[in-house]
User: Fold this.
Amino acid sequence: MKSFTFLFLLLCALAKPVVAQLTNVWTGVTPNIPDTVGCQALDAVNERVAWAVSQKYDPTDSLYFFAGSPTVWFHRTMDGGQTWSADTLPTTGTPFLSTISAVDSQRAWVTGVDFNTFAQFVLKTTDGGQTWSTDTLPGFNLPGGFVNNVFFTSAQEGYALGDPSQSATDTTFHFEILRTNDGGTTWTRVPRSPALDGQPNEYGVFNLYESVGDWCWFMSTNGRVFRSSDRGQSWQVSATNYFGATFNIAFADTSVGIFGGFDFVNNSIGLGLSQDGGATWTDITPQDSAYLVTTATIVPGTRVIVLVVRNSNLSGLLRTWASYNLGQSWVEIGQGANAGWAEFVDENTAYAGEWQNPAAKGQYYTYNGSPLLGLFSNRELEASVQLSPNPARDYAELRVEAPSPRRFQLNINDLQGRLVYQSNSENTAFWSTQIDLSNLPAGMYNLTISDAKGHSTRRLVKQ
Assistant:
């Protein structure tokens, strides 16, 4: 029987000191929910529409336990995350939600399982969640059968991903994958191939799939990545050599992608990078990795990896990190949001859902970094930047002059990437600000100025 332990147990780590309260790059909105719940899955459709599902957990400082509540929720935004609707899903028993997939503002699918009986369900709406019907999949009922994810890439084309199971004509256990080309009216199981043969004690994982164009990927509990470049008709498999619990996989395009996980043995995160569509994987785990990762994703069309991390479930510290060089180095860009399952639509738009906060109702987030957007591009800041004195003691003067008004953001990171100072300008073509360095230790820092289109980084020396 499938084990769900790794879905609920997350370990804590030590905090790191910071110099000052810093900016939260996520804007949170609280849906009208009469309970404290946590986001379980999210699907961003476009710059205006996103869907999500949430359920009840019992979090402690270091652990997450599924609370077993009979009530689960779905949420939708149609205004770019300014507001989120909330309503209950028509489930029975003790539902545990696995994922949600949406193709527009009206059509979505929710997958789950009764936590006590292991009865599986797929719910479908075509009217924005006003009504839900139960879809019956013609599979996942032979020995080993279990559906983990149902996702659609269009209103007609979809996939159902399951654990290794037998087929009607073959007693070998291989991953069960169904495809539909008519919106779920009929489904066909993908024929067996050696790539889909299951290993001992290997299963699929809830909410662990990705698709870009004709390509799609999913991961197993044995750290293997299954990939298709022809819309799920044929499959290949690769080993990542990562054996921790995996909870995120994301691709920027058909070549570059990452996965994120947590190693319960070593109490640290794990990150893998592929630059060949998932055929091979490189370990890019940061050296300082003893913390919990709420989100690991990559911005579509860029090479920017974004992490949201925390050092405990109840008290933070909550940080957002980014890498602009595919994991070779990391910089902190903000603090304050436990933004889980973050999904970028493009470099301007992202949505995320809060992992459960026991003291407050869960929020849903949008990325608010309009002055940070230049950080996600390879474009140089179109402005002159003057910094003096440098080296500096207690204060330094920053002067930025651009050909037209815009908002600027100043980030100062230490050489370990930690964000130690942050400031924003109003909409202006000329920005002059005094930087208080008095509380910073002597040493070298990276100072970055960004606007909506580009950024510029300078080395700052504090004496």
Remarks:
- Helices lie at 5-8.
- The first helix runs from residue 5 to 8.
- DSSP finds one helix and 37 strands in the chain.
- Confidence is low (pLDDT under 50) at residues 3-21.
